[in-house]
Specification:
Layout: E1 8-11, E2 17-21, E3 25-28, E4 36-42, H1 44-47, E5 51-61, E6 75-86, H2 96-105, E7 109-114, E8 124-126, E9 138-148, E10 159-168, H3 172-175, E11 181-187, E12 194-201, E13 205-206, E14 212-220, E15 228-238, E16 247-257, E17 266-273, E18 287-288, E19 319-329, E20 336-345
Parallel strand pairs: 3-10, 13-20
Antiparallel strand pairs: 1-2, 2-4, 4-7, 5-6, 5-9, 8-9, 8-18, 9-10, 11-12, 12-14, 14-17, 15-16, 15-19, 19-20
Amino acid sequence: MVVKFQVFKKSARNDKITLYLTRRDHVDHVTHVDNIEGVLVLDPNYVHSRNVYVQVAVNFRFGREDDESLGYSFVKTMYLHTIQVYPPEKERPTTEIQRNLISKLGNFAFPFSLAFPELSSPSYSLMMGWQDQGSLMGLEYEAMGFVGSNEHDMQERSTARMIVRRLMDCPLSLFDKPPPQKNISRSFLTCTGSVSIEAKLNSQVFYPDENIMVKIELKNNTSREIKRLKVKLVQRSEVPMFQDRQARDRTICKVDDPLNLPPGALTNREFVLVPTVPSKPAHGEVFLQPSMKDEDEPCLAPSTLIAPSIKKRDLFGIYVSYMVRVKATLGTLVGDAILDIPFVLAVQQGS
């Protein structure tokens, strides 16, 4: 019987170290993340008495490459979970694919398994705009194998690097939760009474390009007319580890309804919003799930989901969330009543 399996290969510049990975996409299941598993092949005549290590690193770019100047870099790199594969410190458990690889690659092929850091976010990248050049804000992971006298002695010529993705999956338990429903009552300084908004979605979890049904009940108890109703689908991105924790809201799509609701009136409205990648702007504003190939279809970044034991402020990287925003406008001199209904955007990840 012939067994076929796919592996990914990357060699160092001097071809003395070669990295084989069983896959490049690793799913974050909230409670745990799939390990990076593979085999490293080395040239013993080159290594001599030195050691060989494998390591996972996370690169967080928090600014545009175009804005870097005077040697300042907007990239922070953390080197995490280093394992010595040669000389072997202990016998490591292997998968069937690793055993098959070792049998084909010879005596100097060594298995390894690397764990993703618990406190880092999934892989995200900012959408490229048509005027953008260089790298934009995002977070990526890199698996590396290298030769050195210790784990800090890394030479570029004898280092094999391969980008891997940490992809966010949505637990099945979230699909069983009731649809989100919220309400708000807002009063204003320049007129009497209040505006009441009640909104409900048809589900807690949505996939990209799936219709989001928004039901709204709007009651105008003020002495002024409500001039229009706006309904938006908003992506919010945050960097929790920064002190200011500034949130960026970007509109994915919107509906504008000039309803002209008089004082004392009540109305019910239904809208349909579709979470899809917007047309390419001059400069990237929306976060996507990064793709491995240029020809891959762009996909909105899934919502960031973290385990109950992890605090959001401790997360390294980018936190992405989504909401439907309902805004009733009474005019420039009066103000707006705004209601946000959060939901989860899930992306179906490969097995």
